[in-house]
Amino acid sequence: MAFIHDPEIAQQVVLAGIKKADELGLNMAVAMVDDAGNLVAFARTKNARLAAIESVPAKARTAVWFGRPTAQTVEAAEKRPTVYASILSTSVNKLVLSMGGELLFNGEEIVGAIGSAGASGAEDIIVSKVCVELWQQLTQL
């Protein structure tokens, strides 16, 4: 479980996302949070937009708080908009309804999440999944 707080591993993981974004020609930001939603690592491409930079920790935090990828939370919010609007209104700047937040596990335990922002939802997911794959490789040593 200590891996989430290892700054070298955390930075490698978010930089893998930035590398993927660069390969795809995308301007993005990537963040890692721990199991409480606290920022652990952050990186961005040179031309990432302010909206991506500001929202990406909230995207990762949303995955942790709901215990699922944010794409699933977006889908749930479409079915119950009043409930999710209430949750968002009480957690200003903490949560966002946007795809691209993916969970990090240690076995079955959620230990954090990755958030990627700045492109389409599908592209955000691709970048986050690259980070998750590297996380799994580095922590299964």
Mean pLDDT rating: 93
What CATH architecture would you give? Answer: 2-Layer Sandwich
**Biggest sheet descriptor:** 4 strands, antiparallel
Total domains = 1
Q: Can you identify the CATH superfamily?
A: Haem-degrading domain
> What is the string of helix and strand elements?
HEEHHHEEH
Quick tags:
141 residues; alpha+beta; Beta-Lactamase; 4-stranded antiparallel sheet; 5 helices; 4 strands; 52% helix; globular
Question: Mind explaining what this structure looks like?
Answer:
- This protein is of the alpha+beta class and 141 residues long.
- The protein has a single domain, classed as Haem-degrading domain (Beta-Lactamase, 2-Layer Sandwich).
- The chain is 52% helix and 19% strand.
- Strands 2-1-4-3 form a four-stranded antiparallel beta sheet.
- α1 (7-24) packs antiparallel against α5 and α3 (70-79) crosses α4.
- The longest helix is centred in the C-terminal third of the chain and has 19 residues, at 121-139.
- 43% of the residues are buried.
- The model has no long low-confidence stretch (mean pLDDT 93).
Short description:
With 141 residues, the protein is of the alpha+beta class. Helices cover 52% and strands 19% of the residues.
Write the layout of secondary structure elements.
Blueprint: H1 7-24, E1 29-34, E2 39-44, H2 50-66, H3 70-79, H4 81-89, E3 101-106, E4 109-117, H5 121-139
Antiparallel strand pairs: 1-2, 1-4, 3-4
Helix pairs in contact: 1-5, 3-4
